[in-house]
Amino acid sequence: MTYPTENQLVKRRPVAAGQLLINGRWLDSKSRETMPTIDPTTEEVTTTVAKAGPEDAELAVNAALKAFEDGPWGKMHHEQRAKIMFKIADLIDERAEDLAYRETVDMGMPYSDFLKVLAPHASGVFRLFAGAAMTAMSGSYRSSYEPDLKIITKRQPLGVVAAISPFNFPLLLSISKIAPAFAAGNTVVHKPASDTPLSALALGQIMLDAGVPEGVYNIVTGPGSSLGDSLVKNPKVDKVAFTGSTKVGIGIVKNGADTMKHTTMELGGKAPNIIFADANLDYAVQAAFWGIFWNKGEVCVAGSRLLVERPVYDEVASRLTKMAKEAVLGDPLDPTTMIGPIASRAEYEKILGYIEDGKKTAKLLAGGGNHKINGKGLFIEPTLFAASNDIKISREEIFGPVLPIIPFDSEDEAVRIANDTPYGLSAGIQTGNMSRAIRLAERINAGTLWLNAWHKYHPNGPFGGFKMSGYGRENCVESLESYTQYKAIWANLV
Predict the structure, then answer these.
(1) Both 380 and 259 in a single domain?
(2) Within 266-390, where are the H helices?
(3) How far apart are CA 300 and CA 195, in angstroms?
(4) Of 103, 214, 298, 300, which one is the catalytic site residue?
(5) Residue 15 DSSP SS3
(6) For residue 313, which of 402, 394, 388, 395 has the smallest C-alpha distance?
(7) What does the alpha-carbon distance between residue 238 and residue 87 come to, in Å, rounded to a whole number?
(8) In a domain, 464, yes or no
(9) Per-residue confidence of the chain (494 residues) as pLDDT tens digits?
(10) 117 with 1: CB under 8 angstroms?
(11) Helix (H) or strand (E) holding 492
(12) What CA–CA distance (Å, rounded) separates 390 from 393?
């Protein structure tokens, strides 16, 4: 794999039109309808993909169910499944440049970020669960009170898993659902976000080339309002694994209740990042800047509330203001770009609305406007506000490059403000006193805590939230259990 140099701009190129992947074949939707994918940098059409409807979803579910019940996947020895999963990981590495290009023109992620950070993580998740498939699905024997009565326990796959993935990390947040589902022996119907389907289509071809049997991985592209509901309400779907907004997640849980769906919900966040006066400010300011502005703030675990101890508040705000004003916005295919465009027009308009609200209730320090390249592009300047924790921009998930900076005077006040949110996905503490960092980490209600860091990830690191940020965990081997169910067999040996 080669990375672009500073002078090497990756050129835009055509992307083939996308179809649905059902039962191992690429198909048009039943309606023959298509929908465009829009490059947020140029605001032009990149290509078109099939627009599936409920009838297509039913076909995909039926294919997945048949593959689960009658196909070789569920009967395959777990080591053979693992071998296929290792092959998928190898192909992700080999095709990383194509996947990076698709994510860049689909949602504006910097091309070099995908190659250096996300591609290795994506293939690593498949390797992690390939290894887990060889060990974690084994049965066990347990004793009962009667010496001749043995209890045999085993995990079994659930069946058909609907993986519904978001627009902000299209490939990675799909793989975090697909890999454990595969490791357990489930089959999958994948509905990528309607705005960002291109990497899922490339993943579909990787699956076929790796030898995944027909019907085990199916892709339906289309609007969530109809297509997603069809999957969630379908009684033949055993589990829904979802990443997205809390509002949509609540709807999925309600709609899946009638058929007793297993669910994993990775939802919204409003993460507090706490900087104490004794922190290494050079490092803490960098962590704060990239904690919110990496991937232009379209990150569920972004450090979207900055809490700063009052003695260093002005200095931190000044440093961040300088960095925000000097940040390079531009084409994400250009390796010199720091911040790319917002993924879609709808998200762009929503974020600008929050900024306008912030201008009325807080003090604008930097940014606050949009940015264009040759008159086009869904770019928003990195925006900073001096704020309190009781206003809209500090309470609601904006999902964009907007950061309220909130002062505090004591540890207890910092913890109170940090926990004063319905969300609990992530948080961070920047301090020179590690004892304090660990002590406060115990008191903050969040699924991930970064101490003197931000945006650190590993395939084996548990990922998920508290409170309205959802439930269940992804990435880690522990998540495999949520894709299985236990069976107990009582054997009388007399």
Answers:
(1) no
(2) 281-293, 313-326, 345-361
(3) 17
(4) 300
(5) coil
(6) 388
(7) 27
(8) no
(9) 333 444 567 899 999 999 999 999 999 999 999 999 999 999 999 999 999 999 999 999 999 999 999 999 988 988 899 999 999 999 999 999 999 999 999 999 999 999 999 999 999 999 999 999 887 666 676 777 788 888 888 889 999 999 999 999 999 999 999 999 999 999 999 999 999 999 999 999 999 999 999 999 999 999 988 899 999 999 999 999 999 999 999 999 999 999 999 999 999 999 999 999 999 999 999 999 999 999 999 999 999 999 999 999 999 999 999 999 999 999 999 999 999 999 999 999 999 999 999 999 999 999 999 999 889 999 999 999 999 999 999 999 999 999 999 999 999 999 999 999 999 999 999 999 999 999 999 999 999 999 999 999 999 999 999 999 999 999 988 899 999 998 899 998 87
(10) no
(11) strand 484-492
(12) 9
Exposure b/e, 198-229, CB count within 10 A at least 16 = b = bbbbbbbebbeebebbbbbbbbbbbebeebbb
d(Cα 441, Cα 387) in Å, to the nearest integer?
A: 24
Q: How many helices (H) and strands (E) does the chain have?
A: 16, 24
Q: Do 233 and 319 belong to one domain?
A: no
Residues 231 and 97 grouped into a single domain: yes
Spatial separation of the C-alpha atoms in residues 159 and 16, rounded to whole Å? 32
Query: How is residue 481 annotated by DSSP?
Result: G
- Annotated active-site residue 300? The verdict is yes
Residue 266 annotated in active site: yes
d(C-alpha 146, C-alpha 375), whole Å = 79
- Bridge partners (DSSP) of residue 161 are 188, 239
Catalytic residue among 103, 266, 309, 381: 266
For the CA atoms of 137, 71, 179, 16, what is the dihedral angle to 10 degrees? 170
CB 477 within 8 A of CB 136: yes
Structure tokens at 126: 């498949």
pTM given for the model: 0.95
Instruction: Mark whether 183 and 283 lie in a shared domain.
Output: no
The verdict on 334 and 301 lying in the same domain is yes
Which structure tokens are listed for 63?
């294919």
pLDDT for the residue numbered 3: 39
For residue 4, the model assigns a pLDDT of 42
For the chain, what is the radius of gyration of the CA atoms? 23
> Containing domain of residue 443, as a range?
272-458
Q: Give the Cα separation of 76 and 67 in Å (integer).
A: 12
The enclosing domain of 278 has a CATH number of 3.40.309.10
- H or E stretch including 484? strand 484-492
* Ramachandran sector of residue 455 (left: φ over 0; alpha: ψ -120 to 50; beta: rest): left
CA atoms of 342 and 339, how far apart (whole Å): 9
| CATH code, 191 | 3.40.605.10
Neighbour-count burial of 257, counting CB atoms closer than 10 A to its CB (0-12 exposed, 13-18 middle, 19+ buried) = exposed
Rounded to an integer, what distance in angstroms lies between the CA atom of residue 181 and that of residue 186?
5
Vertex 181 angle, CA 96 and 267, to 5°: 80
Distance CA 241, CA 203 (A): 18
